[in-house]
């Protein structure tokens, strides 16, 4: 049955078969052509048999396997490799169909390749998941044909595999590597000069233009014969908490990914950066109740705990309860900390409902409220209205944008720091604000 089940006839076969039928009809009216048509049909059948024998005469004529990372990174391009090996004694044309997880909603992952006898080849492509969770890969289907091309043999390589999709650790590693190589400005991270200094002395170094003249060490200057200054480092072991709102306001998608997943990815990068800076990082998630609290720490193993906690976040996008959030923070966080709240306010009324709780938090902690610009409105804001309906739509869009600016102004008036950012620039802008707070000695 395998020789029948794995046999697929090509379009070329059916084209020649139909052409043969047409020629036989023509030969019925022109008998002199009958012999030629009969010979051509016989040659066609012989070629089909030869093609079949070449394809099925060898049991293991072709091999394929898929290789990928043990876990995929959410919101990032993940590399997938398919390795091909042709064991036939002749060159082969192949069509590869990879059964990727249904979450991608793609049915066109198809590749066409040609391999010589004994040749191996690697196909590389990328997948960008937009939701956390488990993704199930299926088999690799390879359809092999010879140069004759009348038949194809299917190889079905069972490579079913379930792969977890974690918060964007690729993005986290990228920022980490850039920080190590001192290339963060390439990603949009600003170099911020420290204002004043902390009480933690680091070293004495040679004066360079721009250094604070108040830190000149006159004794070291007298010994060296050149200006020397005291260098101070940022205070360490400060607590940084990423507080993620999992309520309905975070369900809105941009470029296929929800605001919740954007916030989770940014929280992972911020927590890792804070730990590199010597600070302690923690995570709190909430919606209608407190979902999880991970106490701030800076041990190397703590980053893995953060990654696992963020991966396992599930929500029904219910109404968020800020009163419970305030009560739990007062109960569990005693030291003054930086609280980075990832949420979204679409109207002044929505913000004012939560303002009393944010004000109470700001009395005891440094609060940074991060919410999002609606980048989907950019087209409405820049268009030239052609009719009454478009005038109405543009007016509504401008009102939404203006309300966001009013929210920022009102929060700032109550001593609450704000960050209004496009979802795509969330990580960069949040890191910049954290570094700004460090440079100003606010934490």
UniProtKB/TrEMBL annotation:
Transmembrane parts of this sequence: 12-33, 39-57
Keyword Transmembrane in record: yes
The entry's keywords: Membrane, Transmembrane, Transmembrane helix
Domain DUF58: 204-376
Lineage: superkingdom: Bacteria
Keyword Oxidoreductase in annotation: no
PANTHER family associated with the record: BLL2464 PROTEIN (PTHR33608), SLR2013 PROTEIN (PTHR33608:SF3)
Protein's name in the database: DUF58 domain-containing protein
Species: Solitalea agri
């Amino acid at each position: 049955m395998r020789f029948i089940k794995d046999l697929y006839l090509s379009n070329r076969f059916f084209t020649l078969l139909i052409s043969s039928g047409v020629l036989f009809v023509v030969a019925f009216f022109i008998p002199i052509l009958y012999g030629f048509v009969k010979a051509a049909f016989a040659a066609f059948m012989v070629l089909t048999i030869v093609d079949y024998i070449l394809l099925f005469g060898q049991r293991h004529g072709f091999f394929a396997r898929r290789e990928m990372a043990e876990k995929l990174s959410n919101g990032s391009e993940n590399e997938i490799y398919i390795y091909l090996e042709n064991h036939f004694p002749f060159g082969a044309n192949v069509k590869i169909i990879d059964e990727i997880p249904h979450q991608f909603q793609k049915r066109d992952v198809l590749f066409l390749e040609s391999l010589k006898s004994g040749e191996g080849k690697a196909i590389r492509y990328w997948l960008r998941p937009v939701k956390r969770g488990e993704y199930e890969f299926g088999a690799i289907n390879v359809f092999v044909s010879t140069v004759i091309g009348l038949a194809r043999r299917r190889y079905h390589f069972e490579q079913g595999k379930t792969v977890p999709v974690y918060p964007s650790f690729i993005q986290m590693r990228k920022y980490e590597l850039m920080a190590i190589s001192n290339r963060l400005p390439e990603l949009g991270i600003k170099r911020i000069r420290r204002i004043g200094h902390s009480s933690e002395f680091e070293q004495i170094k040679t004066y360079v233009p721009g250094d604070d003249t108040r830190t000149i060490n006159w004794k070291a200057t007298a010994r060296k014969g050149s200006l020397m200054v005291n260098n101070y480092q940022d205070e360490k072991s400060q607590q940084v908490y990423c507080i993620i709102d999992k309520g309905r306001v975070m369900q809105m998608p941009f470029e296929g990914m929800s605001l919740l997943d954007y916030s989770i990815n940014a929280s992972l990068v911020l927590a890792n950066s804070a730990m590199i800076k010597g600070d302690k990082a923690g995570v709190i998630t909430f919606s209608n109740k407190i979902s999880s609290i991970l106490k701030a720490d800076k041990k190397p193993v703590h980053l893995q705990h953060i990654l696992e906690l963020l991966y396992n976040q599930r929500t029904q996008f219910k109404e968020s309860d800020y009163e419970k959030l305030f009560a739990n923070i007062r109960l569990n966080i005693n030291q003054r900390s930086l609280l980075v709240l990832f949420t979204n306010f679409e109207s002044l009324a929505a913000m004012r409902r939560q303002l009393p709780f944010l004000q109470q938090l700001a009395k005891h902690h440094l609060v940074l409220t991060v919410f999002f610009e609606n980048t989907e409105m950019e087209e409405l804001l820049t268009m030239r209205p052609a009719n009454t309906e478009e005038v109405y739509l543009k007016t509504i869009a401008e009102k939404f944008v203006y309300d966001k600016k009013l929210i920022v102004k009102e929060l700032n008036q109550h001593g609450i720091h704000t960050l209004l950012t496009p979802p795509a620039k969330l990580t960069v802008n949040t890191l910049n604000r954290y570094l700004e707070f460090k440079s100003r000695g606010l934490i």
